[in-house]
Known about the structure:
Blueprint: E1 2-8, E2 12-16, E3 38-43, E4 55-61, H1 63-81, E5 87-92, H2 96-100, H3 118-136, E6 139-148, H4 150-161, E7 168-172, H5 182-191, E8 199-205, H6 210-226, E9 231-237, H7 246-264
Parallel strand pairs: 4-5, 4-6, 6-7, 7-8, 8-9
Antiparallel strand pairs: 1-2, 1-3, 3-5
Helix pairs in contact: 1-7, 4-5, 5-6
Amino acid sequence: xxxxxxxxxxxxxxxxxxxxxxxGVALPKSQYLTELPKITxxxxxxxxxxxxxxxxxxxxxxxxxxGELVNGMLHRLHLSNGTNxxxxxxxxxxxxITDFAPTVNRDPRGPVGAGGGGDKFxxxxxxxLIPQVNKxxxxxxxxxxxxxxxxxxxxxxxxxxxxxxxxGHLAFSPAxxxxxxxxxxxxxxxxxxxxxxxxxxxxxxxSEGGEMREVYDELSQTILRNRNLDLYLRQDEFxxxxxxxxxxxxxxxALTGLYHYQQKQGL
Length: 267
């Protein structure tokens, strides 16, 4: 897959690209973020040859750390199993706790006063980044958000607070214990409301214990018991794998489940 590096500051600019296939994406200064994230874009290997084909877009939080992992797995799955190719957009925040935590933490056991910028970050993605990606590349309006740990918390927050923004959500060891557990509680309320939830949700957990495991298990069971038929749910437990490796451990199942859901949607 062709890797294209974009840096966002006052505009979205290509720094590593094939001039014959890439055009820079102009993006005004964000009205939501004071410091814009670094963006990486990977185009499918078939992108140039199939000039009329549109692709789903997978937005990967902590893109510098996780983008290549997702890129490689998707490419291997496409070659081996014929799964859909995706445009991959990685986002690397300069302050991930501020940008990814939806609420400010008041618990003295954690970083008091940290977080609270999650909705502004989603505003940026929804109102500025996605429109520019759709304008620049051939997309099919099927968007997925993936994140690990505190980034996974933002994935869960997006799932319940903006259910139509992304059609798929991949949350690896999401930090749903954060703060006063606001995101976990809001998600439990959302899934028990009995309203239709047409989406794909993947969640997993590793060997984490204590409060993190307790809150995750409660949320996981609530979703499992109350999901409707429109919600395509896949969950994993990797009890022999530490927190740092749950994304690598779960990525195959997450992306395979995503492909099955996309097939059901006719993609």
